[in-house]
Each structure stands twice: as structure tokens, then as C-alpha cells.
User: Fold this.
Amino acid sequence: MTRGRLSLVAVLAVTAAAVLAVRIARSEAPEEPAAAGPSELTLVVLHTESGPLTAVVGAGGSAAPAGLVVPARVDLTIPGQGDGTMGDAAALPGRQAATAAANLLGVWIPHHVTLGGAELAAVVDRAGGIDVGGTRLSGADVVASVSSSEEPSEAVWEPTLEAILAAATWEPKDVRDADSPTAVAELLNAARDASVEVLPAEEVPGGILRADPQAIRAVVAQAFGVADREVLPAIVLNGSGEPGIGERVAERLIPGGFRVVVSENASSFDHDTTLVVVPSEEQRPLGERVRDLLGVGEVQVAGPASGLADVTIVVGKDFGA
Assistant:
């Protein structure tokens, strides 16, 4: 073999050894953990003989799995419908209910599932029952307990849901009435051993409960690992006459850090162009931010402020066209 060929063989051998060493080092080096963000959320609605029970369950993010029970008597704005309670919202189709809950909490809830008593009982029985307060309950016992308790429903639903999440294994067939049965089943399984609490709220005249926005902000940030940000109020008026337009507007506003505080019809339905109205030139950037979220519209300055929100949206026929 010539000296040139010997040199070439030596170079190739060194190169191969270096490549092998790099591969071995990579295989032995620990993988960098993926950065975890906020929990993935789903609204769980359980229909019972005494009314609906609701909770937002989160898992898979930087925070530990958690559940937040939203009492049926908590008042809120249902985008596209107006004022109501969580119980009113829970009686609507799943996506509308989840949007209303998201509007209350100030964080987007992408998933939803509606359960009946028989479906929940089957999940509990498959787990061999659950322990609630030191008592072993079958599926039928669980349904009877949350349906007929003399205590406020949320006081019973909180420990029951916590026990269910600790013991149950969910399959897509268990959550057929979900936006994505597979995704929701995976999320509920990931929420095993979640801690569950009740959204803090105070009773006000009329027998309803009212939650303070600052308290909501703190609870949501702690429970689900979302950014602790200010959620800005917005008024939405339907100026196009298209049913359900307020809900579709909310679906764009809520992830952007807004909460719909008024959802009503405009004085007329002849608005071709969506108007984003702010009370002063200083608030124009706020209006532009809203316009960008909507994808359409014109920003107008027309004071003074309403006292409820610094931005009013009159939805025109161009939205969603």
C-alpha cells in the first residue's frame, strides 16, 4: 500500500472514531426536559337530578394537576346570550358552556365534556368504587350523593371529584359527549391525584354568588400555571344581526386577555363594518389590539368611557365574512 493510501486510511479511521464518540456522548447525555407551559384545560359538566355540576380540570403543564369547581350560582356573562349563571351556561351545548366558563375565569378552555349520572357511575364502578370522607362509594352511591345532598352542591362535588380523579381511569368511550373524546380522556388521566378547590365567591342579593376578578386571577394562576395577567373588560354589541356572533367574538378576545362584561344587541343590525370604540386617543393602542384579535374593524375614538369597560365592540357584517 502506498504512503498516500495509508494516510487516507488513517484519516478515515480517525474520522469514524470521532463520529462514534459523538454518537455515544449524545446517547449517554441526559435529554433536556421540554419547557412546560400552562395546564391544558377542560370543562367537565355533570348533569344530575338536582342540576348541573361544573369544574375546570387542568393537567400537563408546569403546575401540578388541579381542578376548580365553579358553583352553579356564580353569576357571569354568557357571550352571545347576556347575563346568567354557571348553571345557565352548563345547560347550553358544551362549547358554549366552556366559552362562558373561560370568560369568567379569564383563561381559554379548549376542551369540554358533558357527563350523565350513568356514565359517571360506570367509570367509578370500573375503578372499584372511590373513598370520599372515609366512606367507600359505588358509582350509584356517588350519583345519589351529588344529586341529593342537603349541603351546597359544590361542597359535595369538590371532594367527590378529587376522589374520582385519584382513582378512575378514563377511556374515550366514557366521554363520548366531548369535543375530542381521546384528548379529554388523556387529559383526565393525566389529572390523577389532582387537588380540587372551589372558586371563591360571595353571596349577593338575589341568591347568586359573585366572584371577585382579582381573586379569580390569583386562583387560576396558582391552579393552572397560567400567566398572572390583568384581564381587561370589553363590551360586545351585535350590530350584524347574526345569532351567536357574540360567542365567536369572545373566542378571539378571551385568549388575548379580555373578558366580555356586556353581551347585547346593538341599536340596529345595519353595521357593515365592525367598530372598536375607545374613549380617548391614549386608548387607541388598546383598540388596535382588539382589532388585531378580531381580524377586522375600524378603531374609533368616542368618549367618555362607559364605566364598565374602556373598549366597546359593535360587531359588523364583516366579522367572519
